[in-house]
Design brief:
Peptidase S74 domain-containing protein, 6-stranded mixed beta sheet, 4-stranded mixed beta sheet, alpha+beta, coiled coil, 352 residues, 4 helices
Length: 352
């Protein structure tokens, strides 16, 4: 019955408008309050007012085109919308089109054909970014009319910039030293339990649990790196390195010093080299170290070589000392015997 009255009402309404017959309200279901077709006033005209408590359905040859339920849910392509706006695409191409044929109302590189969400006096919208003619150059997100995020056709994402040049570009607005550090939090599990990184015009900061874990900055002059990591694994540091432990792995060692065929330098030659060059043999001079730096691994092995040579010198000196001690003991015994014989000789001479 409701369906019949609804269709009949629409047909009658169409006939009345086509015949230009005036009416104020048509109703059905014996209820002029809850089931009627009428009008409502607008400035300089009036609008069509459809009040049908059970809902409104518009059909086409392919099925339900539009469904308005009693609870206010609207469905397109479905008679049972589960949300305020429910679209059932079926087997058709999936898409909702926001069409804006005129380009004169929106300047180039601005957001057009947008979907807007409002809350009191604030609004946020998303839409396509128009190019110089009819091309699309991106997808943008705005807050209160100010664009904040942009996606470009090549897959770049810009935050705070409308022209991202990388897959994630934070833009110049996010490099303001007054807001340093501009952090990007990759994971957060509560207060001081998060990790991410920060970027500014002066530094790169990796942090976790509220602490700096890796920090690269400038020494006050832009363009002079404090720490540089190379693609080959090398690192350049301008300044001091502080660490709990440093491990250097090298294949060669200095144990060759203890081989039988090792030619241990004579101390006389070492003394001569020191007097002439003011540094140990096979060790770079202070001037060379200042100019060329020091390879820590190789330098440690050279120092170990010198320590092992000193050990051999000490062992040899210890042997010589023991030999001298033995000779000294022998001389001491001989001296005591001589003294004893001298006393005996004196006693014999006194008796004569």
């Amino acid at each position: 019955m409701k369906k019949t009255l609804s269709v009949l009402g629409l047909v009658i309404c169409g006939l009345l408008f086509s015949q230009d017959i005036a009416f104020s309200k048509l109703y059905g279901h014996g209820d002029p309050v809850n089931f009627y077709l009428g009008s409502y006033p607008v400035t300089g005209s009036s609008g069509l007012d459809i009040n049908w408590y059970g809902g409104i359905r518009l059909r086409t040859s392919t099925g339900v085109g539009l469904q308005l339920l009693e609870n206010g849910n609207i469905g397109i392509g479905t008679s049972t919308p589960q949300a305020k706006f429910d679209v059932n695409f079926g087997n058709e191409q999936k898409g909702i089109r926001f069409f804006q044929p005129s380009t004169t109302q929106n300047p180039i590189n601005t957001l057009v054909s947008s979907l807007m969400f409002t809350w009191y006096n604030n609004h946020a919208d998303m839409g396509i970014i128009r190019g110089d003619t009819d091309n699309i150059i991106g997808l943008g997100f705005r807050f209160n009319g100010d664009e904040k995020v942009r996606f470009t056709p090549n897959g770049n994402v810009g935050i705070g910039t409308s022209s991202p040049v990388s897959k994630l570009d934070l833009g110049t607005n996010y490099s303001d030293p007054s807001t340093f550090p501009n952090k990007i939090t990759l994971w957060s599990g509560g207060s001081n339990n998060y990790f991410g990184f920060g970027i500014s015009t002066a530094s790169l900061d990796y942090f976790s649990q509220g602490q700096h874990r890796f920090f690269v900055g400038y020494n006050g002059s832009p363009g002079i790196e404090v720490l540089t990591l190379k693609a080959n694994g090398n690192a350049a540091l301008q300044g001091k390195l502080e660490a709990k432990e440093v491990k250097v792995t090298l294949t060669p060692t200095a144990d060759f010093v203890f081989e039988k065929d090792y030619d241990l330098p004579k101390l006389e030659d070492v003394e001569k080299h020191i007097k002439e060059n003011k540094h140990l043999p096979e060790i770079a001079s202070a001037k060379v170290m200042e100019q060329e730096g020091v390879n820590v691994g190789e330098f440690q092995i050279k120092l170990l070589q010198k320590i092992e040579e000193l050990t051999l010198y000490s062992i040899e000196q210890n042997k010589q000392i023991k030999k001298l001690q033995e000779e000294n003991q022998t001389l001491k015994s001989q001296s005591e015997k001589i003294n004893k014989l001298e006393k005996q000789l004196e006693q014999i001479l006194e008796k004569q």
